[in-house]
């Protein structure tokens, strides 16, 4: 037992490298969520308008990003777009862009669903005091839809964080990719290293995602308690 | 001759093929209280909602304060500051306090000075005996209290004309009186011009100068309140009055 597998984590700079990879993962997920949510709110509001062509276009956009697997989206943007359209970005920025577009699409559906479930008479009483469309959304509809949106949005965030694990496929140096490198480099000295490295990665993801999903559940429960008096 | 505040001429409305308002003609004078009576489904609510642009109409004209209304959403949005409306469902905005509910119109739509608007809102709240609830949220109010706030919210815009659409229909009986008293006060003391849709016959009798009796989307009778309640002209109006327990 000269080499216990767990030591692989503390060999050289391995642990710091894994943390660095985790930082890349978190950064991409965070930026994608921030900009994706902003995009999604704008698109979600637009999707409640009566303008038909606009609705059709946004619906197609949503369905495209929802139906096509995220891996395929990544490959599409990573391999095909650069060649066809001369559109070149470093892998991590490109991954962020794809995730922003994906989050924007999913978020637009959450926002639209919440907005149209605000009761109709709220819209009418808003109109009856002379609010214009912008004011109606700003002061009445959007604030009331938020409590409906938050749990679904947090769930989306946990999905986005998990999905970053496919970024190694386009060579982003995220936590999985670095873990893979450490495993391969230490295969001979630490045959059980794979277990420990993936164990640690599991722990990282769990520590980020579990509190989020717990928070979403709690908010949803509170909302229901409030709604049912 | 009092000034005509509102004039409706040859108004027609269809829902698809269903003809819901037939050739509606009437006018309302300054300071006059008109009640719309009729069985459920007779088109009262549809008619009153047309007067605030919440329903579209296919033919006819509405003239307000001498101006023929061009029924675009933008025009209606301007007019709604002068034509206040209160609905059956006490529909305060649950995300705002009572005070913010009231201030939304005056400060955001009319861009009134915040301090002045707040003073006016406090005065109006006091007039409906709800001063203590300025910072409460709507869910903390009873139905009757919420409806009184909804009336105050409409009045805060200083409308020239008020529409009340069955404002007591979903209230508990003991709450009804308080709300009706406020409407009576508006009619008597403030000389507000208004159209009231109601099922409260005693209230209608007491408050109305004139009655429009609707059935199946048509105005069957248009007469003074006194005449309508003591001596209705049509057999349908007689049946309607007999069916109402008051």
From TrEMBL, chain A:
One protein family per Pfam: BPD_transp_1
Q: What is this protein called?
A: ABC transporter, permease protein
* Record-linked CDD domains: TM_PBP2 (cd06261)
Membrane association type? Multi-pass membrane protein
Q: Which GO terms describe its molecular function?
A: transmembrane transporter activity
Q: Residues in domain ABC transmembrane type-1?
A: 22-213
Q: Does the keyword Transmembrane helix apply?
A: yes
* UniProt similarity note: Belongs to the binding-protein-dependent transport system permease family.
> Which PROSITE patterns does the entry mention?
ABC_TM1 (PS50928)
Which superkingdom is the protein from?
Bacteria
Which key words are in the record? Cell membrane, Membrane, Transmembrane, Transmembrane helix, Transport
* Stored InterPro entries: AA_ABC_transptr_permease_3TM (IPR010065), ArtM/GltK/GlnP/TcyL/YhdX-like (IPR043429), MetI-like (IPR000515), MetI-like_sf (IPR035906)
Chief localization: membrane
Give TM segment ranges: 20-46, 58-81, 93-111, 166-183, 195-216
Q: Does the keyword Transmembrane helix apply?
A: yes
**Lineage, broadest ranks:** Bacteria, Bacillati, Bacillota, Bacilli, Lactobacillales
Protein location: Cell membrane
Identify the GO cellular component terms for this protein.
ATP-binding cassette (ABC) transporter complex
Q: Which GO terms describe its biological process?
A: amino acid transport
TrEMBL record, chain B:
Q: Which family does it belong to?
A: Belongs to the ABC transporter superfamily.
Q: Where is the ABC transporter domain?
A: 6-241
Q: What protein am I looking at?
A: Arginine ABC transporter, ATP-binding protein ArtM
UniProt keyword list: ATP-binding, Nucleotide-binding, Transport
List, alphabetically, the SMART domains matched. Answer: AAA (SM00382)
Q: Name one GO molecular function term.
A: ATP binding
InterPro entries the record matches: AAA+_ATPase, ABC_ATPase_HisP-typ, ABC_transporter-like_ATP-bd, ABC_transporter-like_CS, MetN_ABC_transporter-like, P-loop_NTPase
- SUPFAM superfamilies membership: P-loop containing nucleoside triphosphate hydrolases
């Amino acid at each position: 037992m000269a080499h216990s597998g767990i030591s692989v984590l503390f060999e050289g700079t391995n642990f710091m490298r894994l943390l660095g990879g985790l930082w890349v993962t978190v950064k991409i997920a965070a930026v994608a969520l921030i900009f994706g949510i902003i995009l999604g709110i704008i698109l979600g509001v637009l999707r409640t308008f009566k303008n038909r062509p606009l609705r059709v276009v946004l619906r197609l956009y949503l369905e495209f990003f929802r139906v096509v697997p995220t891996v395929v989206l990544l490959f599409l943007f990573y391999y095909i777009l650069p060649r066809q359209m001369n559109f070149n970005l470093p892998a991590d920025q490109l991954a962020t862009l794809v995730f922003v577009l994906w989050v924007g699409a999913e978020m637009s559906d959450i926002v639209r669903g919440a907005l149209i479930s605000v009761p109709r008479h709220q819209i009418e009483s808003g109109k009856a005091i002379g609010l214009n469309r912008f004011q109606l959304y700003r002061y009445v509809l959007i604030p009331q839809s938020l409590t409906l949106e938050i749990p679904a949005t947090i769930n989306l965030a946990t999905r986005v964080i998990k999905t970053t694990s496919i970024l190694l496929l386009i060579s982003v140096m995220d936590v999985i990719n670095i873990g893979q490198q450490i495993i391969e480099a230490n295969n001979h000295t630490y045959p059980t290293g794979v277990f420990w490295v993936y164990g640690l990665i599991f722990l990282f993801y769990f520590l980020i995602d579990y509190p989020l999903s717990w928070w979403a559940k709690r908010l949803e429960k509170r909302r229901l308690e409030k709604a049912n008096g | 001759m009092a000034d005509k505040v509102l004039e409706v001429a040859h108004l027609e409305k269809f829902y698809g093929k269903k003809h819901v308002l037939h050739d509606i003609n009437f006018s309302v004078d300054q300071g006059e209280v008109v009640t719309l009576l009729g069985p459920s489904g007779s088109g009262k609510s549809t008619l009153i909602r047309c007067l605030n642009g919440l329903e579209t109409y296919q033919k006819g004209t509405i003239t307000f304060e001498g101006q023929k209304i061009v029924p675009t959403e933008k025009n209606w949005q301007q007019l709604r500051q002068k034509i206040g409306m209160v609905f059956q469902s006490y529909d305060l905005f649950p995300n705002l306090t009572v005070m913010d509910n009231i201030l939304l119109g005056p400060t955001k739509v009319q861009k009134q000075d915040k301090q002045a608007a707040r003073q006016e809102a406090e005065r109006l709240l006091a007039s409906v005996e709800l001063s203590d609830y300025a910072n409460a949220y709507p869910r903390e109010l009873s139905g009757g209290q919420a409806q009184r706030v909804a009336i105050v919210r409409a009045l805060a815009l200083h409308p020239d004309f008020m529409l009340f659409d069955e404002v007591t229909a979903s209230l508990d009986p003991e709450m009804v009186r308080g709300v009706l008293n406020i409407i009576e006060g508006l009619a008597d003391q403030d000389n507000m011009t208004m159209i009231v849709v109601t099922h409260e016959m005693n209230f209608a009798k007491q408050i109305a100068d004139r009655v429009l009796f609707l059935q199946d989307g048509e105005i069957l009778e248009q007469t003074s309140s006194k005449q309508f309640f003591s001596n209705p002209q049509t057999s349908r109006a007689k049946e309607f009055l007999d069916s109402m327990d008051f």
